[in-house]
From TrEMBL:
It comes from Chryseobacterium taichungense. Its EC number is 5.4.99.12. The active site is at 58 (nucleophile). It is an enzyme of class 5 (isomerase). The gene is truA. GO terms for biological process: tRNA pseudouridine synthesis. The keyword Transport does not apply. One of its GO terms (molecular function) is tRNA pseudouridine(38-40) synthase activity. This is tRNA pseudouridine synthase A. Belongs to the tRNA pseudouridine synthase TruA family. Residues 15-109, 155-249 form the Pseudouridine synthase I TruA alpha/beta domain.
């Protein structure tokens, strides 16, 4: 009797501290989050599992909330997230796993992504690995927030894109960009339909020059219109950057109550 196997697609919601990884995506001769996730899943499910992430973060960048999908013919049990966390390193944590429609894609079906960047305005040994220590020169967030408004006027962010990548377009639509100060810490929140490689760190580096008085807010227009990476500021350190949310239309693609 011939047996038929049905492949099911699952989404994983997870987070990670990127300090020990060369980003999410698998790379030759480098440790990645994707490699650790696929190794753990393949071990537990006893089959080769390949995952597709919502994006590829840069080396050292963290993710508070990110998704990936994978396919399997096996019926998964509710204990899988706990078992998966037992196999994964301490710096990767799975929150939930749930079934979606078979063509729902973690990368291409994302409607927005949101990042946060943290800057410490005082020397703080407890945030040395989680925020940019920028205490030698004061920053004024008022002109930095003025510059944020200018970002909404543009969609071509070539000046903030990493050179020599395989991007087919440098067009992005920014939905939110703002700086907030809480005590001695600054937080930059930016949300867009998509981001270019190194884009957020390049924007932050340029904004810091504005906050330090090296550039005026209106100079950001010239930086963007030049469409030249050399016009923008130096990239901010990776360890201050966090992917905090990825948006999807789950109402149309959700098929299970999850684990």
């Amino acid at each position: 009797m011939q047996r038929y196997f049905i492949t099911v697609r699952y989404f994983i919601e997870f987070s990670y501290n990127g300090r020990n990884y060369f980003g999410y995506q698998i790379q030759p001769n480098a440790v990645s989050v994707q490699e650790e996730m696929e190794k753990a899943l393949s071990t537990i499910l006893r089959e080769e599992i390949k995952t597709t992430g919502a994006g590829r973060t840069d080396t050292g960048v963290h993710a508070k909330k990110i998704f990936a999908h994978f396919d399997t013919e096996k019926l998964l049990d509710q204990d899988l997230p706990r078992r998966l966390n037992s196999f994964l390193p301490p710096d990767i944590s799975v929150k939930r796993i749930f079934q979606v429609k078979d063509d729902f894609h973690a990368r291409f079906d994302a409607t927005y992504r949101t990042y946060e960047y943290y800057i410490s305005l005082e020397k703080n040994p407890f945030t040395e690995d989680s925020a940019w220590q920028h205490w030698r020169r004061p920053l004024d967030i008022n002109p930095m927030n003025e510059a944020c408004k200018i970002l909404f006027e543009y969609e071509d962010f070539t000046s903030f894109a990493k050179l020599h990548t395989d991007n087919k377009t440098n067009l992005c639509k920014i939905y939110k960009a703002e700086w907030e100060q809480g005590g001695s810490e600054l937080k930059f929140t930016v949300s867009a339909n998509r981001f270019l490689r190194n884009m957020v760190r390049a924007i932050v580096g340029t904004m810091v020059e504005i906050g330090a008085g090296k550039l005026k807010p209106e100079d950001l227009r010239t930086v963007i219109e030049n469409k030249n990476r050399n016009s923008a500021g130096t990239s901010a350190p990776a360890h201050g950057l966090y992917l905090v949310d990825v948006g999807y239309d789950f109402d149309l693609n959700f098929k299970d109550s999850g684990f």
